[in-house]
Specification:
The complex is a heterodimer of chains A (740) and B (223). Chain A is built from 25 helices and 28 strands. In chain A, the strands form five sheets. Chain A has a seven-stranded mixed β-sheet. In chain A, strand 4, helix 8 and strand 5 form a beta-alpha-beta unit. In chain B, helix 1 crosses helix 5. Classes of the chains: A alpha+beta (740), B alpha/beta (223). At the A-B interface, helix 8 and helix 10 of A face helix 1 and strand 6 of B.
Chain lengths: 740, 223
């Protein structure tokens, strides 16, 4: 066991990820040299992962409030009102670094961590999503990472018992050295049954719940705040090991305990385990905390105070308990086979004291550990805007061939291979499973309400223009939720970037946050929780800027819900929100990238005013019951959007295109704020006429572009492609890649 | 119908099953915690739901099969009470020796959640009378270890006695089960184990109600 009296050398400080000026700050704060355990505690609290020291200044600019918001950022998860005394509790969090080092456990514990964030608040998890990004398909590590991460996500979520209803999977060489695993979870609670982490009352027992503490994950949060190099394999011991069975028991025990009225405050032990949770509970409640480590349930012998304070063993909680309920609380945990130990108490001296084997190994000012963490206004340079494509720069291809090639490409092919490894229907409330625009889950105990979930970002847009890319991530998430008929309520952001100490990377982060903020304000889609993952770099190569947005929307009546599948034959198809030429923008499109190998041009700009107007109009059509099949247009534009609606239904469509206009941008342009809507109306009837006039009156261009029916998809002058061929192209890439 | 659902830590489709039984029978089932040794009087049906009992860290269902409640369930089955085990529940019944054979890892070595087609191979059982003989129904599966196996003599007996109740149909066998077996019953015909999840396909919100017939059959018998 390393002694607590270990000499604090500059090497030791550096190996804790603390810069010399940060260490000086510690010396100034406590007026003496820290003990080894104290150094570990500071390192845990002050690393990028826990302190948000590079991003805080900019995160403060995001909109986080609204009449629907009950709890914004700062707690374990955000809380949003959905009426009738019900609330939805949700958050998205990254587990990138551990997943690259040990994909199965990294991804599994990412899922476990986000589920715990949600049920710590008193909510039963009802839905999960995962946004995954991997390196190039031909990179030697990619298959191994895909297979491990997907198995880990499934292994944890399936056993815990939460349906995975959506997500994303993308490939790009820029993720070769750093994959991204962003896990989202949402739960349901009652508005009067929300639990927070703020401790209240002096001299009250601090209780340790859940699994025992081991040496796994010691220093994990510090590892996640540094770049990778070729010695990355040595970091494997910093990855935690997940136990979904214990987590499931912990969920049931916590919900039972909360219902008993015994809980004053509760906090899950995530990054930096016991340290972070204890400090957070005390500091929020303006109280000190004293911990006696001899009482902590351990599963290994001879653990030092340092190891116990920094362990990231999973499935653990810390709670402040009403003393008179102790016996009742302990009985619940015994029933579920979990540890229950009083490990400390709240105090009135605002100190964070840690005792081990009768010795005080740490005695620190509790508020300063969080409040006095360094905060940086890092230098940043404004990203350069790419030049627009020349008007006549429209590389040609056969439309049918290009469509089939895109549907069979790494980024656009069906994700069935992935989502069939996830339990998508457990709990019996899944109304829309992966493969559509958004996952939809009905609200148990309510006759007609349902929640829609989507996770979105287009990293290549963010790379080309982080500001527009940030806007687009929010807009696409909002649009996907709208396409089901749901009203988008609020969002969570998971910002994945490279090393913020580089001004170019910091510039991406700043611009993306500005874009996200602008879009969230315009669309009334506040950010209620989130997470920042920086230093996603290997040997100096950063990932594509990837600010993932997870959103939640409310459907008043799921009987009036739209899906992407065509709902019948001979239905008129409208392209709602289109420009006069239906589609124009090829810059940064998958058509340019995957058909012509080009990554140039600006991403499609998002007109937020139009986005809002068009979205409200489309939602109105769904609520009236005239639009049962709706799909937003994104990657691959009109051609891919139509193909996806056809494949989901087995029904073809004919879309003649425009005379005298180049069909390439029409069918493959990625202009924003567009929806395909197939109407359950007679195209010759008066109701259809009235609807077109209504769109016109609202200032929305919504041309009737074609009609559903038959077994082929016919686009413009291109040859008709049987829907069965589309399905074959779409379904074959992923299994062939993984099993090839 | 008076029903009860067995609760063992790690089972996680208990809520789905309780909801399905409540919706189909109009009556909420009782719950039986793992340590219980006596069962309520007059039960028509005991269900062991799906999940990952004790994490399935040992052989699936092996620990749950040895919990006190399972002895009571076995005694009830001997007295003729109808018992249904779904997914992990099926694995538990096999581990408890109440059904023959074994459920091995899927041949894909992966968890699989998708809809399959089932053939009602024997429509003359307490669980299937609401279906037509050889009727093809839709049903979802969600499991990692559903690959049924039995020794040749045992298999012959099962097939010969009409105890293969459900079979994966139309090339939808998701796990490599021998003879496409999805569900089997005991010799007395009152204990059924099946891998698919009929409780997740009983109402329009589920996109269909093909799974309802199993519960309705037991309900009709109880009435």
């Amino acid at each position: 066991m390393i002694s607590n009296d270990l000499a604090i050398t500059s090497d030791l400080v550096a190996s804790h990820g603390l810069k010399p000026d940060e260490y000086q700050r510690i010396l100034d704060l406590i007026g003496r040299e820290p003990s080894f355990t104290e150094l570990g505690i500071f390192s845990a609290m002050w690393n990028e992962h826990c302190s948000y020291k590079s991003s805080k200044k900019w995160l403060r600019t995001l909109p986080t409030t609204g009449p629907q918001v009950i709890q914004g950022p700062g707690e374990n998860a955000g809380v949003v009102d959905i009426g009738d005394g019900d609330v939805v509790v949700f958050k998205m969090e990254s587990h990138n670094h551990p997943s690259y080092i040990e994909p199965y456990q990294g991804a599994a514990t990412g899922v476990g961590g986000i589920l715990r964030d949600v049920f710590t608040m008193g909510a039963r998890p009802i839905a999960a999503m995962n946004a995954l990004r991997f390196g190039a398909p031909d990179h030697p590590k990619t298959k191994h990472l895909v297979s491990g991460v997907v198995a880990g996500v499934g292994g944890y979520g399936n056993a815990f018992g939460v349906p995975t209803v959506g997500g994303e999977v993308n490939f790009d060489a820029r993720y070769n050295g750093n994959c991204l695993v962003n896990a989202f979870a949402a739960g349901l609670a009652k508005s009067d049954g929300i639990f927070l982490s703020e401790a209240k009352g002096v001299g009250l027992p601090v209780v340790y719940l859940g699994a025992k503490t081991g040496r796994d994950g010691v220093g994990g949060a510090t590892m996640a705040s540094a770049e990778f190099d070729e010695k990355i394999e040595e970091k494997r011991p910093t990855v935690q090991v997940g136990d979904p069975f214990t987590e499931k028991c912990l969920l049931e025990a916590c919900l039972e305990l909360m219902a008993s009225g015994a809980v004053i405050a509760i906090q899950d032990m995530g990054a930096a385990g016991l340290t972070c949770s204890a400090v957070e509970m005390g500091a929020k409640g303006d109280l000190g905390i004293e911990l006696d480590l001899d009482k902590v349930p351990v599963r290994e012998d001879a653990m030092s105070a340092y190891e116990m304070m920094l362990s990231e063993s999973q499935e653990r909680m810390l709670m402040v308990l009403k003393p008179e309920k102790e016996a009742e609380a302990e009985a619940i945990f015994v029933k579920w086979g979990l540890d229950f130990a009083i490990v400390g108490k709240t105090t009135d001296d605002l100190r964070f004291r840690v005792l081990h084997q009768g010795v005080e190994v740490a005695n620190l000012p509790i508020k300063d550990l969080g409040d006095q963490a360094p905060e940086y206004d890092r230098p940043h340079v404004e990203p350069k805007k790419p030049a627009p494509l020349a008007a006549n720069d429209i590389p040609q291809a056969d439309i049918a061939d290009a469509l089939l090639k895109l549907l069979n490409s790494p980024d656009m092919s069906s994700r069935r291979w992935v989502y069939e490894q996830y339990d998508t229907l457990i709990q019996g409330n899944s109304l829309q499973r992966p493969g559509g625009d958004a996952g939809v889950v009905r609200v148990e105990g309510h006759a007609s309400k349902a929640l829609a979930f989507s996770s979105d970002v287009t990293p290549r847009y963010c790379e080309a223009d982080p500001f527009e890319g940030g806007k687009q991530a929010v807009a696409e998430c909002w649009r996907n939720i709208t396409a089901t008929g749901a009203l988008p309520l609020a969002s969570t952001d998971n910002l994945n970037f490279g090393n913020p100490e580089k001004p170019e990377i910091m510039g991406q982060l700043v611009s993306a946050i500005k874009g996200i903020g602008e879009a969230c304000r315009a669309l009334d889609f506040p950010i209620v929780s989130g997470n920042v993952s920086l230093y996603n770099e290997t040997n100096g190569q950063a990932i594509l800027p990837t600010p993932t947005i997870g959103g939640v929307g409310l459907l008043k009546d799921w009987d009036r819900m739209a899906r992407i599948a065509f709902s019948g034959e001979n239905q008129p198809i409208l392209l709602v929100g289109a420009p006069q030429q239906w589609g124009t923008h090829l810059g940064q499109s998958v058509y340019l990238r995957d058909i012509h190998g080009r990554n140039d041009g600006p991403p499609p700009p998002v007109d937020l005013e139009a986005e809002l107007k068009v979205g409200i109009f489309v939602r109105g059509l769904i609520e009236r019951g005239v639009a049962k099949s709706v799909h937003d247009l994104s990657d691959g534009g009109l051609a891919v959007g139509l193909a996806e609606m056809a494949m989901a239904s087995g029904i073809g469509a004919t879309v003649p295109g425009l005379a005298d206009i180049d069909p390439i941008p029409v069918f493959f342009g990625e202009d924003q704020n567009r929806y395909l809507v197939a109407l359950d109306l007679d195209a010759q009837g008066s109701e259809f006429e009235a609807l077109l006039r209504e769109a016109e009156a609202a200032g929305i261009f919504a041309p009737w572009i074609g009609t559903t029916g038959g077994t082929d998809l016919k686009l413009g002058q291109a040859r008709a492609v049987p829907v069965a061929d589309l399905v074959n192209a779409h379904e074959s890439w992923f299994p062939a890649f993984m099993e090839g | 119908m008076k029903s009860a659902v067995v609760l063992v830590p790690g089972l996680n489709r208990d809520r789905d099953m309780i909801a399905a039984l409540t919706k189909v029978s109009g009556q909420a089932p009782a719950t039986l915690w793992q340590t219980e040794t006596t069962l309520p009087e007059g039960l028509d049906l005991i269900v062991i739901p799906g999940g990952f009992s004790f994490g399935d860290y040992l052989r699936c269902g092996a620990i749950a099969a040895r919990m006190p409640v399972m002895r009571a369930v076995a005694d009830a089955a001997k007295r003729g009470v109808t018992v249904l085990g779904v997914c992990n529940g099926f694995q538990i019944l096999v581990e408890a020796g109440m059904l023959p054979g074994a459920l091995m890892r899927n041949t894909s070595l992966k968890f699989v959640c998708r809809e399959v087609k089932l053939q009602v191979t024997n429509a003359n059982t307490a669980f299937t009378r609401q279906y037509q003989p050889n009727q093809i129904i839709r049903c979802p599966v969600a499991h990692h270890d559903g690959n049924y196996f039995a020794e040749p003599e045992e298999l012959e007996r099962l097939e010969g006695e009409g105890r293969v109740v459900f079979r994966y149909a139309e090339n939808t066998n998701p796990n490599g089960s021998i003879n496409d077996i999805a569900g089997i019953m005991n010799a007395s015909g009152n204990v059924l184990g099946l891998m698919p999840h009929p409780e997740n396909l009983i109402e329009s919100a589920h996109g269909g109600d093909d799974g309802r017939g199993i519960f309705e059959s037991v309900l009709a018998k109880a009435a």
